[in-house]
Request: fold
Amino acid sequence: MKYVSTRGAAPVLDFEDTMLTGLARDGGLYVPERVPTLDPTEIAALAGLPYEEVAFRVMRPFIGDSFGEAEFRDIIDRAYASFSHPARAPLTQLGPNLFLLELFHGPTLAFKDFAMQLIGQLFEAALKRRGEHVTIVGATSGDTGSAAIEAFRGLDAVDIFILLPKGRTSEVQRRQMTTPTEANVHALLLDGDFDDCQARVKDMFNDFDFRDRMRLAGVNSINWARVLAQVVYYFTAATALGAPHRKVSFTVPTGNFGDIFAGQVARRMGLPIEKLVIATNQNDILHRTLATGAYTRETVVPSISPSMDIQVSSNFERALFDAYGRDGKAVAEQMERLKETGSFPVSQGAIGRLRETFASGRASETETSETIARVYAATGEVICPHSAVGVKVAEEEADPAVPMIALATAHPAKFPDAVAAATGIRPALPKRLSDLYERPERMTEIANDLRTIERLMEERAST
Ligand SMILES: *Cc1c(COP(=O)(O)O)cnc(C)c1O
Reply:
């Protein structure tokens, strides 16, 4: 299996190098040269299997020769052993045709654990075999950083640096990043917003001297392995509700477009998905793009669903690449334009294809709170603000003939203030995190300046 860049000018790589590289050297994102498919019989056979077995069957064709079968099975088993629910991604029913896919039973209580726990294991296996050390760097709006630190803390072959926007994550999120005691973990509080953090990480990858000297590796959802891990739960959820014999729809609370793009990969693999719905909060660049045909960056307005407070949505580039008929040069031109002017018009044909592929909706702050309160009153389920954005938009897109699955992306206890304001209930942290507020914090505040950040990383890393 070979991987190509969305900007068409980077080396073609196998799975392992794609994973270890992160961002392509032409600034693009890696995607598989072609998407393997499962036929309806193979999809039907997934129903009722353990999550790990589905994970193996769905991901195996993308891995090529990078990992042996037994080794890959072992990696998957270890990745999901720390999840607190035997189904890993259980479905609950909210209404006659509305389901919630609970993706928050991993160690840091957000769906990011599905991918991060897996790539922690994949990195360790690959680096051990190669005898190499890497410096992992990631930007986070809150959940990616905590999941990444949890997955890589204490591993010999990596240092991990996470850039988080100072004052913009929830306290639980920040503490999950600042309380690990392992020496290879470095939490950097950047004076800026998430887009600044992500931009500095991309700048580092484009500083080839620094990138090569530090052996930089990225674990943001620019990393293909993350997207791949997330394809799996679309299969477990859909087959549980009758796929491939009946279609299902998904609504996905979206920020960086990684999770919903995984849904599109599942569909291209053959999973019969009727609607794939983008749900945004008030930072609604993706919803506006589909509505207006122009991708126009605005400033981020902090919301009660902070993990979606994003204006430059990295993985959207992967969808654009497909919408532009896999023309890397056209994508590179649009991205250049975005960088220079903050906007680009999606061409007629491409916007048409995007609208055929995705529906979209947005939830305001008030609608989000109302949805948390309403779901609690009607069902007794306490949902987090991100999941509430999804449920609100899912209800708008409901179709009595097709089950709708809304992705519940985080545990409500990660966002206790917003949940308490809506319901009067302060959700408790699960037992394994119950002393989080007592643990000492360790972090470094840093200016939004590339050289300053790079210098600090060189001092701290053990390479
Ligand atoms: C990261 C995150 C999202 C957005 O996911 P993307 O893949 O960036 O679109 C939504 N909800 C929660 C809780 C998250 O942590």
In short: Residues 110, 112, 143, 221, 253-259, 307-308, 386, 409-410 surround pyridoxal-5'-phosphate (CB under 6 Å).
